[in-house]
Design goal:
Length: 291
Amino acid sequence: MSDAKQSFLDMLAAERGAASNTLAAYARDLEGAEQAIGNLAQASRSDVSKLAALWSDLAPSSVARKSSALRQFFGFAMDEGWRNDDPSGALPQPRPRRPLPKVLSHEKVEALFERAELEAASGKPEAVRQMAFLELLYGSGLRATELVSLPLSAIPRDAPLITITGKGGLSRMVPISERARSALDAWLPLRPMDSRWVFPSRNGKHLTRIRLFQMLKDLAVRAELDPTTVSPHVLRHAFATHLLEGGADLRLLQTLLGHADIATTQIYTHVDAARLVALVNLRHPLGSGDS
């Protein structure tokens, strides 16, 4: 690997906290481009324009990722004084359509919680635990990995916030609702006291993502919901969409979700817009649905 590319990757790791998988992906993209058009620190705009044809058979999302990697590299090269021009304008700029995230309706979320609350009333540890992780998934928008790997030390006794370590090892503070606090207060005395995890497993480690998925789908069946529509990520999407519907600020939502780029958060504005269009089509007197 050239010194220029290595310096760029070192910057991503040190200044942006990029995860190892992200760094590996950037390294592959830069290496592939350099094999095709030569030294990137010296490549001309004409050289860069050749990549569009070389990438023509790739999926739009792959082309977008490769273009993004090179665009960032060229910007870094200019900052470091290796180049006095930016040839990234010659890079292809596909606009892949991102699929809208699946979201549970308010009614289905209520059905899921009603079933969980009924089961938690039994006092059985598994049911009380289920109520706690459900409240954190929907009430705080945690990712599945963030939830299952939540250490006990992340939950202060009285503070209304918990510390989450998200993608790339970046930490953020998220609010914990009164409902989630009550669910945790019920669960914590029942968990094994010798574990450092909020949701420990029997082997001394924490609950796995796979087991979390299984338990949610089993709960969905008992709540008479389609289990294919329920997952930790769907509940995270519901958290975001329902907050946005309630008037939450997009920047605040970005912070709560731990998105590095607000463009990722903006997908929820499309979800809300799609819901409004469907409502107009169904209810408006000139729409296609019944009035």
